[in-house]
Design goal:
alpha+beta; Jelly Rolls; Arc Repressor Mutant, subunit A; 4-stranded antiparallel sheet; 21% strand
């Protein structure tokens, strides 16, 4: 089973969370589990950036605004655009980060049907979703909630039909190369036509291989920028044609420019420009 941090001692204003690393059997499908509680003095608006995975929110209490809809527990597929959320009242629950193949096995539908969508858990996972939320809501210990969430996810994901190992291989090559390998090389390596590769990605991932590569490249650039890396170096390291190209991708997938993501330099240090 996975490892869990200690329960929080209190729920002061702000965000409180405890994370759990899923056990080895579930890790190819669920990369992170987090129990959280949010309580702010005034409404909080966030921009949720695109990521090479899917998010499952199993929450209790007041709904939040997600992409213009009011939702409590929700999920969806991979996307290549950002989403705006607004939380105006206290809420708590469990968040699971899913790989494309974990989402495919959990949802039991082609991932193309939920790409770039956010939907209520009840709609996509009827029966399982409401029962899981009710079960987690009965537990008061965050450690118990995370353990129960892992058990319930494993019981649904692991017996489901496994993903096509050739699509898994192609996805891993994209991740390992940070999205730099060509779609033509992937198709040739698998002995597939471009059309067949796209069709298999639509089913298992939701996005095309090219769109998947864009999101993976963006995700790496986000990590580098958040660590304080130089803008020009990030653009070159992540395979953007130039800085304007990186700016366009960030506006589409983060709703901000790279310069707005990168930590501000210390006083007296030189600053980069993304204009």
């Amino acid at each position: 089973m996975g490892a869990t941090a200690a329960d929080p001692a209190s729920s002061a204003l702000g965000l409180t969370m405890v994370q759990r690393t899923p056990g080895a059997a579930l890790r190819p499908y669920v990369t992170r589990l987090c129990a959280y509680r949010e309580h702010y003095a005034s409404p909080v608006v966030r921009t949720e950036v695109a990521m090479p995975g899917a998010v499952l929110i199993l929450a209790f209490g007041t709904p939040m605004e997600v992409g213009g809809a009011r939702l409590t527990s929700f999920t969806g597929g991979l996307g290549d655009r950002y989403t705006v959320t607004r939380m105006a009242a206290p809420t708590e629950g469990v968040e699971a980060r899913l790989t494309p193949f974990g989402a495919r096995r959990l949802f039991g539908v082609p991932m193309s049907e939920v790409a770039n969508l956010v939907v209520p858990v009840d709609d996509l996972l009827p029966g399982w979703g409401p029962a899981t939320v009710a079960r987690l809501g009965e537990l008061t210990s965050w450690r118990d909630r995370l353990a129960a969430a892992e058990s319930l996810l494993a019981a649904r994901i692991l017996p489901a039909p496994p993903p096509d190992p050739r699509v898994v291989w192609a996805w891993k090559r994209l991740l390992e190369s940070s999205g730099s390998v060509s779609v033509a090389w992937l198709a040739d390596s698998l002995g597939w036509s471009h059309r067949h590769l796209v069709a298999r990605f639509h089913d298992h991932v939701g996005l095309t291989p090219k769109a998947s590569a864009r999101v993976i490249r963006f995700d790496r650039a986000m990590s580098l920028l958040r660590s304080g890396a130089d803008l020009a170096q990030v653009a070159a390291a992540c395979g953007f044609y130039d800085q304007p190209h990186m700016n366009r991708e960030f506006r589409a997938m983060a709703g901000a420019t790279p310069g707005q993501i990168r930590p501000r330099p210390q006083a007296g240090a030189g600053a980069d420009s993304d204009t």
